[in-house]
Amino acid sequence: MMPPVFSPKPDTPLALDASVVINLNACGRGRTILSAFRNPIVVIDVVETEIGRGNRQKRQDKLALDSLVADGIIKIASLDEDAMQTFESLVIGPAITTLDDGEAATIAYAVHTGSVAVVDERKATALSQSRFPELVTMSTMDLFASESVRSHLGHDLLKDAIFMALLHGRMQVPKIHLDWVLGLIGPEKAIQCLSLPSFARVLTLPDVTKQGRKSQQR
Question: Cβ contacts of residue 118 below 8 Å, gap of 6+?
Answer without folding.
Answer: 14, 15, 16, 17, 20, 106, 137, 138, 139, 140, 142, 143
